[in-house]
Amino acid sequence: MSLSLQSRRRFLGGAGSAVACWHPVWQALWSAGVARAAVPPDAGEYRAVVCLFLSGGNDSFNLLVPHSGPSATHEDAYAEFAESRGALALAKEALLPIEPRNLPGRGFGVHPAMPRLAEMFARGHAAFVANTGTLVEPLADKSEVAGKKLPIGLRSHAVQAAQWQTAVTDQESITGWAGRIGDLLGGAGSPVPVNLSMAGSPVFQNGVGRGALVVDPVAGAVPLKGYTAAYDPEDELANAASDALDQMLAQAQGHHLKQAVLEARREALRSNAAYAAAAIGPLPGAVSFPDTSLGRQLRQVALAIQGREALGTLRQIFFVQLDGFDLHADALAGHAALLGQVDAAVGAFWDQLIAIGIAKGEPVEGQVTMFSASEFGRTLAGNGSGSDDGWGGNHFVVGGSVDGGKIYGSYPSLALDSPLDLGRGCLIPTTGCDDYFGEFAQWLGVTVESLPQVLPNLANYLPEGGSFTPLGFLGRPGVPVNTQSPTLTEVDGVVTATPGEWTGAPASIGYVWYLNDVLVEGATDPVFNVPLAAGDRVFARISATNDIGTRTMKSPVFTMPGPVSLALHWTDRADNEAGFVLEWGKDGTTFPNIFEIAAGSSHTTVTFPRPATYFARIKAYNAAGESAYGNILTISAEA
């Protein structure tokens, strides 16, 4: 007798590429040395950036106000502020005091409508970037204005908003810096693009390869009216219209423009369907978002972050917007109301990130960073009850990876007619937008070699032979960093986690385990020996801690395999058997599993409990006795 076995395997694979733009001015920079982001992404680590655009020109020198100590031009910085602002000055006792850790001897105050932001700053989860604005090249003071290139359309709302979103200040651009990041980092095969907008279609997220998926803040992904991807027995009209559209989209076009339009429509349908399936509630933690435009937008962002694994991308860039900051009149009351909306929505969003992290077993708040943007600041001097369009302004950054409690950049003197004042307190920025944006790009994983494709003006800021140096507000230097991802091994249903390799001298490694995406209470050892059934999913969250902080990595997911059925065949050279006995085992020596098979058979199907290597042998029998065993067959049972 002889036994033989056949099996079939299926291999799946795919490839994609990203398209990006090119700017030749950076060629000389490439050999100048590599700049290092504070904490680059770990392999397989999710990260997201949320741009909060305050449209109209935020009066940000009432957002972040000198409170105590001197300025560069006055022994009492608050008195200088009050004198310059006149009727627009906030009362000192109303401000929420903060003490920046990097500016000893100077105190500041946050607008009284923003207690959550002040609290996050004090806890180290928020920072400010001072006097930032659009530049073509650095300006030391107003004496250099005549001899330097200035951004086109200064103090124009539309032009300056576009420049904040494109990072191109000397000409118009049809792509935004987030769109260019998406071109570099976005997987071509992912169903949903890197960029998602909850506020229309900003140029910020236009890329060469892909644009943004525009999402309704309340409804989420809005389907094409009258289109159904599956047959609807209740709506024959929709079925007919959908079939017609499908046939149109499936047609090949000889004209490149027509083909591009059809592909854009196909991608929109795919992205919409994928988003609708992934970004669904409920959200954990019973967090209450305010019922405001910004509250609804940020709640939708939270849904997308919660569904990020189903969306299939490790990088996401979101755009949200609040209008109304162009306050030429009634500025104090109007600004307080707007900042109150911002504070409530940002505070709820922060709480929701923490709740998602608890539910998923990872510090999601450290994987998401929000930053404010606005086309410009406003004049220090008022025009009565309001202020006019300015230039430089202050901005905030919020997130668990923010090295917070600090003010980055250079907070200027607020004296009127200072060297930075172009008139009535319109201040020249001391930090260019490119320095601000570059840190987000690197934190998301853009290399210094690729920064020219994202920020073409940045070369103008670099000293000869120098390279880009981040301001430092992202990342907590010294926290452990995973350099080789965790792994899982499984033997007979017992799963063991290996933490991988970490830098930063972790003092301890912690483990928490999830079974079918649910936290297993008390499972804190590297070995998980809870009984598993076929199809059970197991993964570990592995945290490395030192005296500076903690970083967490998710292990791969192990899925407990199910049984494998294989057909075993043999050749019978006798004609007088009463039957057969098939025996199999796992070690090739003992064969504890015994099956009787009817005479005249030449094959049978055996169900093995899971994929593994097994050994089988067979013999025949009749009334006179048993035959010798046939050869021992080695069986590689694969799923």
From TrEMBL:
Residue ranges of the TM segments: none
Stored InterPro entries: DUF1501 (IPR010869), FN3_dom (IPR003961), FN3_sf (IPR036116), TAT_signal (IPR006311)
Cited PROSITE patterns: TAT (PS51318)
Coiled-coil residue windows: none
Record's protein name: DUF1501 domain-containing protein
Organism expressing this protein natively: Luteolibacter arcticus
